[in-house]
Amino acid sequence: MSDNIALGLQLLAIGMVSVFLILGLVVALGRLLIYTVNKLTPESDESSTSSELISKKKLAVLSSVVEIVTKGQGVIQSVKKL
Fold this sequence. Notes:
The protein has helices at residues 2-40, 56-69. The longest helix is centred in the first third of the chain and has 39 residues, at 2-40. Helix content is 65%, strand content 0%. The termini are far apart.
């Protein structure tokens, strides 16, 4: 009976260690991928051109909608055209 318990504990330990190592490998490769992609992609230009600006009429409509929906509690901080 004790041989079965010892074998079970051995399998448990091997299984837990292998899962820990595989998850550690997944995390390390994920971080490496994120680092590589961030280094290879060009920086986005944050300046907006005149064609990307939203008209004053649309901005007024958005402000009115936010005012009504949030009952005066909401504030528009920025508007970006997608």
